[in-house]
Write a structure and sequence with these properties.
Two copies of one chain form a homodimer.
Chain A lengths: L14 E7 L8 E6 L2 E7 L13 E3 L12 E5 L5 H4 L2 H5 L7 E3 L1 H13 L6 E3 L5 E4 L2 E8 L6 E8 L2 E5 L17 H10 L3 E3 L17 H10 L5 E4 L5 H13 L3 E4 L2 H12 L13 H4 L7 E5 L9 H6 L12 E4 L8 H13 L3 E4 L13 H11 L3 E2 L6 H14 L13 E6 L2 E7 L5 E4 L2 E2 L4 H13 L1 E8 L6 E10 L12 H13 L5 H20 L4 E8 L1
Helix pairs in contact in A: 3-7, 5-6, 11-12, 14-15
Subcellular location (chains A, B): Cytoplasm
Family (chains A, B): Belongs to the metallo-beta-lactamase superfamily. RNA-metabolizing metallo-beta-lactamase-like family. Bacterial RNase J subfamily.
Organism (chains A, B): Pseudoclavibacter chungangensis
Amino acid sequence: MTTSTELPKLAKGTLRIIPLGGLGEVGRNMATFEIDGKILIVDCGVLFPEETQPGVDLILPDIDSVKDRLDDVVGIVLTHGHEDHIGGVPYLLRLKRDIPLIGSELTLALVEAKLKEHRIKPFTLTVEEGQVEQLGPFRLEFVAVNHSIPDALAVHITTAAGTVLHTGDFKMDQLPLDDRLTDLRAFARLGEEGVDLFMADSTNAEVPGFTPTERAIGPVLSDVISKTPGKVVVASFSSHVHRVQQVIDAAVENGRRVALMGRSMVRNMGIAEDLGYLDVPEGVLIDHRKAVNLPDDKIVFMSTGSQGEPMAVLSRIAAHNHQIEVGEGDTVILASSLIPGNENSVFRIINALIKNGANVVHKANANVHVSGHASAGELLYCYNIIEPEYAMPVHGEFRHLVANAGIAKQSGVPAENTFVVENGAVLEMRDHQVRVVGQIDIGFVYVDGSTVGTITDADLKDRRILAEEGFISIFTVVEAATGNIVVGPEIHARGFAPEEAVFDDIIPGIQKALKEAVEGGTRDQYQLSQVVRRTVGRWVNTKLKRKPMIIPVVIEA
Amino acid sequence: MTTSTELPKLAKGTLRIIPLGGLGEVGRNMATFEIDGKILIVDCGVLFPEETQPGVDLILPDIDSVKDRLDDVVGIVLTHGHEDHIGGVPYLLRLKRDIPLIGSELTLALVEAKLKEHRIKPFTLTVEEGQVEQLGPFRLEFVAVNHSIPDALAVHITTAAGTVLHTGDFKMDQLPLDDRLTDLRAFARLGEEGVDLFMADSTNAEVPGFTPTERAIGPVLSDVISKTPGKVVVASFSSHVHRVQQVIDAAVENGRRVALMGRSMVRNMGIAEDLGYLDVPEGVLIDHRKAVNLPDDKIVFMSTGSQGEPMAVLSRIAAHNHQIEVGEGDTVILASSLIPGNENSVFRIINALIKNGANVVHKANANVHVSGHASAGELLYCYNIIEPEYAMPVHGEFRHLVANAGIAKQSGVPAENTFVVENGAVLEMRDHQVRVVGQIDIGFVYVDGSTVGTITDADLKDRRILAEEGFISIFTVVEAATGNIVVGPEIHARGFAPEEAVFDDIIPGIQKALKEAVEGGTRDQYQLSQVVRRTVGRWVNTKLKRKPMIIPVVIEA
């Protein structure tokens, strides 16, 4: 964890806002709001690692600036139940279990299921749209927003310094499946009253126009299913209740039953059904182990793995490593986006499925996915309805933040009031005036096996070197007086595999170098090991044109 | 290299066709044609590694089936000068330098420049469209095709067994920049005479409709340049002569000079200009070291790095690691496709450039790229004009080959005459009848540092484990009689970085396990090292929830 700059003392009546994650990246969304000694947190998500961060399980927001202040935290508002907004909660609650979680019914149910795996039972406050709560110096009003998971909320924060409207993730589907619209009437009323700072989801700010309605997908799913003589497998996100609802509806229309597959899919849809967010007609769901006994044209398998995750159901089906076989006459639908960086994994699966004879339907060849985020056109509506004094785009890579800021400016937010900032930016609001006053260092906090924050960027650099070059280790025991080798050298190499015999070339060189060093007066084991490193390094660079990691160990006997 | 199945003896008058690369992948295109003891090779390209093949420089076609027959090879036809068609030539010619290379003027000039770096001067035969050559039992007719590099050729092969038309890579731009159309008159004539087997580029077979003309990009480039107050940097492929031509033309229109940057860009455009494929008005080109002294609005930098390659010019500019600074008022144009797998690298650069203040124009926000490959509509034209008896789609992932085969069938090629096959498929043609008769094993041949074909898939698996988990090595010298440790254990770990002190936990365990093993009668050094492996493995899995590679070395003193 990076040490953050010491934050200055905050004047009474001033609101300090620090985005700790989600700016300049897609994931680990988190922001803190502090006034009069109390802190409010909005969201605490995880970021998934890139190919440059091999072996890392998750990346958490850097909470260094708040970790000694947890007693002052009045609560964590969770805008919705996606991993990039709630996934970091267990790691935060490990430090202090009784920080209250505030969110909608579904959001809290999902985070509670997650916390149960970490053996934490949280303090919660369930809220719904329109509800107002006072938490210390923060007056919170929750506003319904539409997203790719039900029950998402924006939060309007009123403090002595002024007001903030934070959208969470949202879009403005005008025909949502659950008829729960993004509440533009509330946005209008809040705008009328005066929103000082607007923090809006930037994910799709580069996309012109409007995000199509989720409802458009249903007929396509039904049509594809109706034309499939065999099995249908649909892969999508395991929390996308409305997408799963449409798959269930399309299955029922076509006289098919539905088997949910994948641990997170089964768990999340169980929660959604129990709470009434997912409507499953009696007798439609069937356990997938029983479903394999149904005729092929009577079943739809609804699975995880749409991003090519190697251990998920879809990958295993494609690799013939699952009891469900997919082939000629069967259809696989990837009803999902293609998250950048996953292309190779996803196309590997698509190719394997096609090779097995299946018909594969995906976003590129049919209308089986719509985004969960507001496009540029919708953002413009929001800015025009709310007319904020200041804007700080959140949730997205730098290019997304810049595009969102562009929309803010188009709508009339003054350029100097539009803040395109990075994680760790320190903003202050006083008397409804907002300015950027500083920047704290924000690092990556890696979850890796059982460790949190132990793995460093230097370790990841080592991993990348090991991946690209492999390593060579040389162990030897030398006679202290002469430098003569008495044990070894034992040479081991992995990942670049010269023949064993190749090592014979270098052994005399190592002996010669060690003897010369000892004769030259070198006695220290570390320095002798450096002699070996240089000798082996030169040889391997010249001979094999590679730069493996070299681990020399010389012990004096 | 995988051992290939022994190929059966070939009956006189029968043509054997084996695609050795490029089927089920995008790259390392190569096919062999054999009749009456003589072999013709078409193309010999490289494949670029994926993220699952870390450290690999290049992947070559597996030439195991032909490497003992090089004396029988009458020549290598190179359809055009792209790396995925010519990049493997130096490695093949290292085995036998005097195999003749047959190709167009530009293609041969590019491969000769490449061979010069390998210190090989090849035997060449320059051909042009319409030309006919007899090489042993093969009558070759070359046909002009249009692609994203000038001077590309399809090749029509006539043998005693029948005829093959191989497109190489192509599209059918009807308004090409150099007015050199794909020669549909020749396709029509050859079809009229009877094409037995048609081998067509599948890359864009999934894309509906028609690939737009290269000419459409010119006005967009000029418009973007005209609106840029500062510097313009354009990144594209280093062999895309027509794209560079359009950049030069747009620069001239806007009163700017052009500096070429990147070793391959400078080399290839030098060749193209010398041979008259690139038309550069007097005084337009300027060395980039001098160009930095021009006013910003008088210069366009034309660079490599459009795929996010970390060492290329564009990456270095984005990282402030280049003498050219890009910021407010400047525009960077990525006039290129986004090859799947490169998304994260490319967007990392785009974000960095935007953060520096630059305007970034790319395929997703402006019409600055068109593909070099025929879309489904164009392929359908070809099949209809040629009316082949048989079709074997080439060049593409499995999904592309299947899409191409679908088009063949739509056009009337019988399904049983449409071969969707993988690398190593063995086809035979006799009396104009084609069938698939076998399959040889095809492996990946990795170029890695100075080695070719030495690195195995097992090594790559090791590299992936090292990348994800790191390693731990334990060296120790024990007393043979007692199992007492006399030197060590020396424990080293990289890539998962527990504190040094953590190792202290496990040292007593190692001593105990070794003593018990020796007391139990184990004497063998290998078996003792396995005792250490198990002990350390159990500990690290339980304690750290990781599975690093474990390298135990036990030596008996």
